[in-house]
Amino acid sequence: MEPPLELLEFEAGITPKCRSTVADAAIDFTGGTLGGITSVYVGQPLDTVKVKMQTFPTLYKNGLDCFLKTYKQDGIARGLYAGTVPSLAANISENAVLFCFYGVCQKLVAKVMGGKEISSLNPLENAVSGGLAAFFSSFALCPTELIKCRLQAMREMATKGHLEGGLERLKIGPYGLTREILKAEGVRGLYKGLTATFLREMPGYFFFFGFYEVSRLMLTPKGKTKDEIGALKTVICGGLAGVGLWVAIFPADVVKSRIQVQSVSGTPPTFRTVFINILRQEGPKALYRGLGPTVIRTFPATGALFLAYETTKKYLSMFYDYLADSKH
């Protein structure tokens, strides 16, 4: 029987030490950064479809109709990959901060639970750590999400006459739009939808990390640890985590997207106002409009995110421990 990874590492003299919180946070930050980049390029086209269907549900029959019309009207770069730069900024900043604080919050939860080792935390305790970490990542995510959503829904806003300049506005990029918002509204203008972001992110990442850890536990073979399940199972666990997150928080995401897009003109509506208006005018089904392309997108995108994160974390941790060991 092949010896476990921990034994091989011990014999090689690179057994993980009790790294400092700063070192672990830096490793998690780097892993989250690379994971965020990977997930954007995998899932951006269907994220564009999701936002369009959330904000303008009557314009498209379904996700495929929205995908084809977007491609026909605006192509790949300005259509399906509209908002990629802010998406990269959003995902890199969110995931870097999220995974950085996830490790910190794991240590905090472990301490509260009687000084446990992080590796011995159960799925519920990891889920709580993820929910707490999402509070911090929301501040990094909200401004870039706002820019992304407005760029993705700009054609529909212009067509409906809600934008000055009409279709000419499609030429504006993320930097131009950011400067425009800062000039007109200041920094506060970039944080429209922050409350909705909190209401989406914190419970969402509770389910996200909870599903991920439960899946890893179930797929871990006897005699091995959850860190030894391999690349394919890691992708599957990440995909299931992403699906669990979006099914749980999709109504809040619909409300958030509408607030950020509709706030382009005048005072932004409140979360409660938008939520009630959707229920009254469009019915409960509207709160799940765009869920199909989101689930299709999130499985490979989140799987890729966790694969990149876990792989980066594994090798950076081994490298750090090797350097620390070589100094002694």
Automatic annotation (TrEMBL):
Record's GO cellular component terms: mitochondrial membrane
Matching InterPro entries: MCP, MCP_dom_sf, MCP_transmembrane, Mitochondrial_Carrier
GO MF entry, a single one: L-ornithine transmembrane transporter activity
Key word Mitochondrion present: yes
Stored Pfam families: Mito_carr (PF00153)
GO biological process: mitochondrial L-ornithine transmembrane transport
Topological relation to the membrane, as annotated: Multi-pass membrane protein
Stretch forming the signal peptide: none
UniProt keywords, alphabetically: Membrane, Mitochondrion, Repeat, Transmembrane, Transmembrane helix, Transport
Positions annotated as Solcar repeat: 23-108, 121-218, 229-315
Family listed: Belongs to the mitochondrial carrier (TC 2.A.29) family.
Protein name: Mitochondrial ornithine transporter 1-like
